[in-house]
Every structure is written in structure tokens, then in C-alpha cells.
Amino acid sequence: QVQVVESGGGLVQPGGSLRLSCAASGHTFSNLRMGWFRQAPGKEREFVATISRGGIVTYYTESVKGRFTISRDNAKNTVYLQMNSLKPEDTAVYYCAGTIITRGLTGTNDYDYWGQGTQVTVSS
Q1: End-to-end CA separation in angstroms for the chain
Q2: DSSP three-state, residue 108
Q3: What sign results for the dihedral spanned by CA atoms 81, 16, 45, 20?
Q4: pLDDT tens-place string over residues 23-77
Q5: What's the Cα-to-Cα distance from 32 to each of 21, 51, 59, 66, 100, rounded to whole Å?
């Protein structure tokens, strides 16, 4: 069974940066497509970014393009989300997700393995 564990959340001021990390185990990491989602209070979980198995192809939701960068280190079984120029509307619980079989890219149903989430709060 694939296990996914996020870390790196916290409180940051508007305009600041955070880097989230996600470690996966239980399967060959380079066979997993990985993604990041987030869920704000009272809202549905939404797609943020995804990265291909080899780390070459990435895709972002429009609201984070140019500010967030997803990357992975297959030697360390870890995927990252570098978040810059953070805004209060980025406040949410951020979830890392993985899948062995690629279906779609942005739906919660497209990923089979989920972490517990890490809180990101952007506030002055």
C-alpha cells in the first residue's frame, strides 16, 4: 500500500514563501504520478499542480501559475511544492496525492493515494 506524508506547512505573511514536501513509500516512486490539491474551509478540495513520473511535464491550476512550482526527486521519493508570492486566498489544507495509473490530471478521483494534509495559513 502506498503511503503519502506531507510536511512543511505553516503560517506565512502575504508575499512570503513556503516549500511543502511529500514523501511516498510502498511503491516505486518513479512509477507514481504525483499531484497537490488544497481545501479551504467550507470549500471543495481543488487541484493545484501535478507532475509526470519523470518530472518533465507539469500542469498547474490557473490561480497559481507563475507563483507555485511542483518538482520531484525520484532518488529521494519526494515531491515538492514551492509556493512564492503567497496570498491570503492560498490559505488551505494542502494534500499530496499519487496514482499508479494516469487517468485524468486534475480530479480528486484521478488519484488513489492521499496524505493527511498540511495546513498553510497566509495572514499578516
Answers
A1: 40
A2: helix
A3: positive
A4: 999 999 999 999 999 999 999 999 999 999 999 999 999 999 999 999 999 999 9
A5: 15, 9, 15, 25, 5
CB-CB contact of 120 with 97 (8 Å): no
pLDDT attached to residue 49: 98
Positions of E strands within the chain? 3-7, 10-12, 18-25, 33-39, 46-51, 58-60, 68-73, 78-83, 92-99, 113-114, 118-122
- Amino acid 97 reads A
Contacts of 62 (CB under 8 A, 6+ apart): none
How is residue 99 written as a grid cell?
496514482
